Amino acid sequence: MFGLMVRFTCKDEEAAARFDELVSRTGEQIKANEPGTLIYTVHRVEGRPLERIFYELYADRDAFEVHESQGYVMEFLAAREEYLASTQVDRLDFMSGKGVTG
Length: 102
Fold this sequence. Notes:
The chain is of the alpha+beta class. Helix content is about 40%, strand content about 35%. One of its GO terms (molecular function) is monooxygenase activity.
């Protein structure tokens, strides 16, 4: 498995609302078209209204590459910059847990 945790900080509340719309549209496409994307969740951060946390888990690195090559993901990656003040990405190496691990 291959995963990411990404923290996005939006520029302001209006940008956060527009970013959330972009995330929603993209997420629907991911759900419908990516069987190798096991988990793709987006969270607001309590007490920090401009922050969003993405948790992404893929069956393997190939599934991640398929995800990244989708037109709707490329559109998301290009459009998101308009709304963001910062982005932090952590690549995750799965060790143990409960859930989609089989």
